[in-house]
Amino acid sequence: MAARQTVKAYIRAYGVVQGVGFRPFVAKLAQECGIRGSVQNRQGHVLIEAVGTAESIAAMTHAISLRPPAAAAVIRVTREDAPGDFAMPDAFVIVPSEQDGEGPLMPSPDLAICGDCLKELFTPGDPRYLNPFISCTHCGPRFSIMWQMPYDRESITMDTFAMCPLCQGQYRNITDRRFHAQTVCCNACGPALAYQSRKGSQGLDGAVLDIKANQIVAVKGIGGYHLACSPFDAAAVARLRLLKGREDKAFAVMFETLEQVRAVCHVSAGEEALLTSAARPIVLLKRKPCGIASNVYGKSPYLGVFLPYTPLQYLLLKQTGPLIMTSANVSSLPIIKDDAEMAAFFEKHSEVMGVLSHDREILRRLDDSVVMEVLGQPLLLRRARGYAPLPLVLAGAQKPFMALGAQEKNALCLLKDGFAYLSQETGDLDTEQVQAFYQDTADDLQRLLRLRPEKVVCDKHPGYFTSAWAQTLELPVLAVQHHHAHIASVMAEHGLSDKVIGVAFDGTGYGDDGTIWGGEFLLASKDGYSREGHLKTVPFLGGDQSVRQASTSAFCLMADAGIKTDDPAGKLVQAAVNAGVNVIGSSSMGRVFDAVSAMTNICQTSRYGGQAAVELENAAARAQGESGPFPYDINEQDGCLIADLAPTVREIYDLKTQSAEAVAYGFHVTIAHLIRDMCLRLSKKHGVDKVALGGGVFQNRLLLELTVPMLQSAGLTVFRNLAVPPGDGGLALGQAQIALWSVK
Ligand code: ZN
Ligand code: FE
């Protein structure tokens, strides 16, 4: 080939391009296109030195953008031609990674086992037949085992295992699908599985035996340990509840195949896509009548379902059938990830019959993510394994800010290079253990992303752990209003900066006027926000106890509606409210849901966060036929629209003879109508036709199904969170967005 027909180019690919089989993909591509040169992981990108014809280099550049490996997310490809003379390389090679480089660092999330590996796993004679750690360039643990970027064998917790000659050969063979697969191992090398049982049974078969004897067994996973047991044995489920201190909250069940899932649940095409995605979240599906013990799901019409994502889970489920797989911890504490932590847990809790473990270390705690499909789109309830730390594009996010979130279901958000990195959800910051996990996560992400924050953003609530911690970081602190952040979170996801009507409904958030907000209608834009409407501020009893006690909220709302109760406990509450003892004004929508749940006798006490509201929704979903809307008032006070639900409360009190399900449904219809009426009035007044729905109340599927079409047929465009949770788990994104907007 004449030298003048040959060109040399530097091609750079940015995005999630490490740990997803990108370099092997490029190497194969080079072979196909007849290109020589090299490919290399740099700190924030993959660098390709390509020598070939102009056509072949153009073809390669195209293929990189248009058909990258499935788990990659290429956000940008640049090409720069090398001027002058150059030497013709002998071949195309993968060269060792370099620490320097520019571009956003995008560590890959953990990836579920791929179809090819699954096939090999069950192929007798394969060198990885029944190997619990089989993986390739397209699958396996990533974020959970990664010390640092660039992503190499030395950078992950597999580096303690020497590769056998077979694995080494495949690792170096460009035509092999394990070419440069950093997690590679086989039956002759790699981590070892071990089972420790109180009964003395051994190995995987021992764990299977114990589970089949309806025992609880701990199983090491990707982001921590699970506790596993049969979902068909009510006694085992009851023991698991006791062990975890989890009285009512539903458990998720793992099934080996989609066919097994279809036997117990309805599965739409979108739900199937979620279930089989590389993230493998728990998906809440409508349950069919089935043999699963009712104490798995309680009164919920849904079942949390997921498919296995590790080879070990497949090996186990193949023999045991479906399993409850719940994070190994006591409720409200972080998921257990270290072997020593698990050993102490095992020692302490005799209900755990055995521990199925191995010696591949887990670096990061990651709970299973939880998602459901609403109106054809995802609704994230918990964003963790499989999603974190995938960033969201956030225009102008060049400032290294760190947003701390709020208090419950917390996650934090870091900004860098035009991206917002939301951490995995760490849980409620009410215990020292979760607080430590949260602080570790903040340090860890800063280190991994090589970022030093210039500013921290926190909630205005002075009592939150995050607000107090912000003050200790010796950085400028911006405190933002909670509901404003909920709406900004929706705006950030959809790239909105002009005025929207923000409907922020949740349980509690610190208001600018010192009262508790939670039923807010804001006019929000990049320039700030104004409170244009809200639920009427009603005196509620303060304190955590009265928030858990839904009936207390009911007695307060009834007092406001002029209903005197005969209930002895209710009389005490109403007397306290009338005397103004321990009373705080609140416009919380969450507490109204709680109150209605108690008034209809659906749930009097929440034993996990939001239980009364969840059970109200579940009851409404069981209702036959239409009911509602109930009456309500909208008044204007000093230019602010006040939504008064006292007429609704009186109606619900009078409807006591009707079925609780019908009342619950009618209440949901009422709130949907109220949202539409308020939004239409604000739309007319301000000439704005975009509505953003945010806050934990919008984790309610029925409310969304009623509200969104109603707003749309009124001519309004509706936005909601799709990539992050609408509750406080997605709040930090909104906080970060507000901080960016505030920089002029
Ligand atoms: Zn694979
Ligand atoms: Fe909130």
What does this protein look like?
33% of the residues lie in helices and 22% in strands. By secondary structure, it is of the alpha/beta class. A hairpin with a 2-residue loop joins strand 18 (413-416) and strand 19 (419-422). Helix 1 (22-33) runs antiparallel to helix 2 (54-66). The longest helix is centred in the last third of the chain and has 27 residues, at 660-686. The structure holds zinc ion and fe (iii) ion. Zinc ion binds next to helix 3.
Strand residue percentage: 15-25%
Helix/strand class: alpha/beta
What is the helix tally? 23
Overall mean pLDDT: 95
Bound molecules: zinc ion, fe (iii) ion
Strand segment count:
30
Strand order of the largest sheet: 6-13-7-8-12-9-11-10-14-15
Work out the helicity level.
25-40%
| Overall body shape | globular
Over the alpha carbons, how many angstroms does the gyration radius reach? 27 Å
Q: Kindly, what is the distance between the CA atoms of the first and last residues, rounded to a whole number of angstroms?
A: 56 Å
Largest sheet: 10 strands, mixed
Low-confidence stretches: none
